Amino acid sequence: MKRALITGITGQDGSYLAELLLSKGYEVHGIKRRSSLFNTDRIDHLYQDPHEANVRFKLHYGDLADSTNLIRIVQEVQPDEIYNLGAMSHVKVSFDTPEYTADVDGLGTLRLLEAVRILGLTHKTRIYQASTSELYGLVQQVPQSESTPFYPRSPYAVAKLYGYWITVNYREAYGMYACNGILFNHESPMRGETFVTRKITRGVARIAMGLQQKIYLGNLDARRDWGHARDYVEAMWRMLQQDEARDYVIATGVTTTVRDFILLAFAELGIELNFVGEGVNEVGYVVACTNPDYQVAAGQVVVAVDPAYFRPTEVELLIGDPSRAKAELGWEPQYDLPALVADMVQADVQLFRRDTVLLEAGHQILYHDE
Ligand code: NDP
Ligand code: GDR
């Protein structure tokens, strides 16, 4: 039985990857952070009672900022594969917490590689590093491939740049099987609530149900290559099953503006939108609602721009070229953008049905979007 260790198991990708590896017969170990509240919502369905026999899913307390803890866990688990998904993963927040981000996303990667080296596991343990399309940053060429130069545009991306190169260096210096997945944005119903797609799909569901009036967003012109997290964790696993370690771009090859994502998300519930105005004065208003389940009035302004969500330096355009992954890993995404949007919007509709019941029962609900 293969044994995998996942950092960031409580996150979006960690939860899908854990499911995938369990379905393949792996013993799955995950590192979770101590938190004052339970933080395992996304993986609670995978929980196995540690008192039972043959448990294949185990969690360990830990933190990428703590090297002795990482060494101890790697020693205990003796993993065949490590997936380093743990990170302070929010680009905008990295401008507020640049030092912490550098520590966890940059040095955290080094700490994990060093743990494997110190423990003499360089030839046993394969390592996946969660690299990112944010490395490309300022557009130099499109579509972006494994040979496109990097130009990071945020403390997050600069920290990930260190993670990328230290992974390459350990592969070259010590012959480790270590590779970077340069993953473009991938989303799902499990996506963190403060990333733009999930913020939109949550807002759309609540507006349709009359629970909220408006979504405030930042740069509507940014373009992203959005795929589904379920497809992308499959690529991570495939990267660690090759004869030789290499770095791969994982993307759909299709780019879409934030504005068009919004239109698609409202359309999923039968709400047609139009945008007027420019820059900070741009708004999206309802043209018509054809779904009898929802009463959203024509003319209602449902999207507005709040400059608080602008970033000091922005990444305007991402579009990936996944040719190498398709040719060498046999990887193909199963979801296109409309399927992704449908999955997310419908899941959020289900989620907020609960709130309508609570409201009818006289409870108060306050939403605080970021
Ligand atoms: P999430 O933000 O959903 O999850 C991040 C995970 O990292 C969480 O489990 C979080 O724990 C954990 N974490 C945060 N800080 C630490 C720390 N100091 N020590 C240990 N664990 C920590 O991210 P995603 O699942 O979306 O992304 C997974 C990885 O892939 C990240 O490294 C991200 O930067 C990278 N990436 C993501 C892309 C995407 O589009 N989703 C694209 C390209 C790269 P907790 O739950 O306690 O907060
Ligand atoms: P990104 O994702 O920065 O690409 O990083 P995010 O969804 O945060 O932003 C995408 C684009 O949307 C614009 N935007 C907004 N973003 C947020 N979060 N909130 C808003 O209100 C809003 N309005 C407009 C942003 O300016 C940006 O251009 C994600 C993370 O998962 C990283 O960890 C990962 O490495 C990259 O994707 C690939």
From TrEMBL:
GO molecular function: GDP-mannose 4,6-dehydratase activity; NADP+ binding
Cofactor(s), names only, from the UniProt record: NADP(+)
Keyword Lyase: yes
Highest taxon of source: Bacteria
EC number: 4.2.1.47
Keyword Glycosyltransferase: no
Keywords of this entry: Lyase, NADP
The reaction(s) this protein catalyses: GDP-alpha-D-mannose = GDP-4-dehydro-alpha-D-rhamnose + H2O
Record CDD domains: GDP_MD_SDR_e
Pfam annotation, one family: GDP_Man_Dehyd
Domain NAD(P)-binding: 5-344
GO BP field: 'de novo' GDP-L-fucose biosynthetic process
UniProt xrefs under InterPro entries: GDP_Man_deHydtase, NAD(P)-bd_dom, NAD(P)-bd_dom_sf
Entry-linked HAMAP family: GDP_Man_dehydratase
Family that this chain belongs to: Belongs to the NAD(P)-dependent epimerase/dehydratase family. GDP-mannose 4,6-dehydratase subfamily.
Free-text function comment from the UniProt entry: Catalyzes the conversion of GDP-D-mannose to GDP-4-dehydro-6-deoxy-D-mannose.
Alphabetized PANTHER family for the sequence: GDP-MANNOSE 4,6 DEHYDRATASE (PTHR43715:SF1), GDP-MANNOSE 4,6-DEHYDRATASE (PTHR43715)
UniProt name for this protein: GDP-mannose 4,6-dehydratase
Protein's organism: Hymenobacter chitinivorans DSM 11115
Classification of source organism: Bacteria, Pseudomonadati, Bacteroidota, Cytophagia, Cytophagales
Gene name in the database record: gmd
